[in-house]
Amino acid sequence: MGGVCVENQVLRRLPKMDRLLACPTLAQCGLPRPVVLQAARAELEQVRAGLRAGTLERVPALEALAQAVLRRAGALSAPRLRRVVNATGIVLHTNLGRAPLSSKALEAVIQAGAGYANLEYGLAAGARGSRTTAVEELLCALTGAPAAFVVNNNAAAVFLMLSALAAGKGVAISRGELVEIGGSFRVPDIMARSGARLMEVGTTNKTRPEDYAAALEHGAELLMKVHPSNFKVVGFTREASLAELGALARDKGALLLCDLGSGALDGRGPWPADYPTAAEAVRWADVVCFSGDKLLGGPQAGILLGRAELIDRLRHDPLARALRMDKLSLAALEATLLAWRDGDSLPVRDMLAVEPDVLRQRAEALCRRLAPLCPCTAVSVAGEAGGGALPGVDYPSWAAALTPEQGDAGALEAALRSWSTPILGRLHRGALLLDVRTLLPGDDEVLAAALAAWREGTP
Ligand SMILES: *Cc1c(COP(=O)(O)O)cnc(C)c1O
Questions:
Q1: Integer Rg of the chain from CA
Q2: 257: β partners
């Protein structure tokens, strides 16, 4: 009981909210009052909890409290979604927003967002139009698909495709392709939600065309192929190719759906010659879908290609409205597709295409710049595309390996991660690796400034 009394006495010394807000540090700070109030509440709550837990012995002085509130309020008013320096070497990093957009795509976003746009207005006819016509025509021209449609992301595309075309029907899919894409998006779950009936065929490592044929004999009406984009099965394996399944589906009058995942548009890019592309997939599948922000290098989007009457059913499904793309993404997607058409540069493709020798020179140049601040050597590293694209395909790269004299690369990693422009690298065997493949113009300057500040702050 005595403990509780003492605790209450200490707690009573906490300043009242009015008094705290009235002290000049806060009263004259110029930040909006609701922000300061929110910060003061949180700070007082934290102090109270510290006093109760015994981690704090006494109530801090009023001015110290006010300063702490001010720091909190400052953090509250700063935007949380910030640019970061991606020094992981992973070009399509899902946690870091996947594909950086081209400057033309960004320009298009500003044009569409700053004012009004003919989003759903046909200028020639002077009447209501469709918001997706422009990108659909480009997609058809680029891939040879008879028809196209776009939605918010590829997860939405898969869901729409299954809901509109396969609800209540049996869909045969290989046991090796019942994958989890990430963020609890699992093929079996999404199928269940869509109302489609999953019919597993084959085994994890081997599935043959005959396995699908048997499922069609037993009531399946559709075949589905999912590109296992974030892992690779190696060794004793066999999968049915899209061409084999396409032939089977045509022969039996079944539909073939294909979730291509990362979907390169065509073979013109730094990926293996046998990598499945959208242009190839639409030759065999009735409907193909893939992401806009993986190898395509554009904004978040779900792209659907396929036969006109099927795409039309997707377009007119009530879900389509709920899953529709917004005008900013549409503007960026159109500009990205124009870059594919015209052979213009796109950041994702460019970053994946850089030769190791060029990366080595860049890493060496970065090391020369950083070495006066922290011991640093250029090292070769194994790289990957990331973002559920091209698993098992090597993208050898080069990194600046920082090895602080104090020997604590972990502390350096944390310091750079909390820099005003956070820098994200990778710890490996006592060194902080900064992979140069994903560094963008201006990032070297940020790295040098952050490292200089870290050096100032460490004894
Ligand atoms: C990435 C991926 C998805 C999800 O795409 P989002 O655009 O992230 O929604 C679905 N299926 C496959 C095979 C994928 O690789």
A1: 28
A2: 224, 287
Distance CA 116, CA 119 (A): 8
In this structure, the residue with its CA closest to atom 13 of ligand 1 is 261
Task: Supply the pLDDT for residue 79.
Answer: 86
CA distances from 25 to 17, 29, 63, 310 (A): 14, 6, 8, 65
Q: Which DSSP letter does residue 222 get?
A: E
- Distance (angstroms) between ligand 1 centre and the Cα of 259 equals 8
CB count, 10 Å around CB of 124? 6
- Taking the C-alpha atoms of residue 332 and residue 439, their distance in angstroms, rounded to an integer, is 22
- Ligand 1 geometric centre to CA of 65 (Å): 47
- DSSP single-letter state for residue 131: T
Strands 180-182 and 185-186: antiparallel
Question: Alpha-carbon distance 105 to 329, whole Å?
Answer: 9
Residue 355 CB: number of other CB atoms within 10 A? Answer: 10
Q: Which amino acid is at 456?
A: E
Q: Please state, in angstroms and as integers, the Cα–Cα distance from residue 116 to each residue in 113, 170, 374, 394, following that order.
A: 7, 45, 50, 44
DSSP string, 141-164: HHH--SEEEEES-HHHHHHHHHHH
Count of Cβ atoms closer than 10 Å to residue 56 Cβ: 15
DSSP 95: G
261 lines ligand 1 (CB under 6 A): yes
pLDDT greater than 90 at residue 4: no
Per-residue model confidence as pLDDT tens digits over 371-417: 999 999 999 998 777 776 777 788 999 999 999 987 699 999 999 99
Nearest CA to 200 out of 224, 232, 229, 167 is that of 224
C-beta separation of 305 from 148 below 8 A: yes
pLDDT at 343: 94
User: Which of 230, 291, 284 is CA-nearest to residue 259?
Assistant: 291
- Residue 379 C-alpha from the chain's centroid: 27
Pocket test for ligand 1, best of 181, 259, 293 (most atoms within 8 A of CB): 181
Q: Which helix (H) or strand (E) holds 284?
A: helix 278-284
Sign of CA dihedral 117, 120, 124, 127: negative
Q: What is the pTM of this model?
A: 0.90
Inter-residue contact 436 to 86 (CB < 8 Å): no
- Digit-coded pLDDT (tens) for 131-154: 899 999 999 999 999 999 999 999
Q: For residue 203, report the phi and psi dihedrals to the nearest 5 degrees.
A: -130, 180
The yes-or-no verdict on residue 302 having pLDDT over 50 is: yes
- Residue 1 pLDDT class (50, 70, 90 cuts): very low
Distance from chain centroid for Cα 332: 16
Instruction: Give nearest CA residue, ligand 1 atom 2.
Output: 261
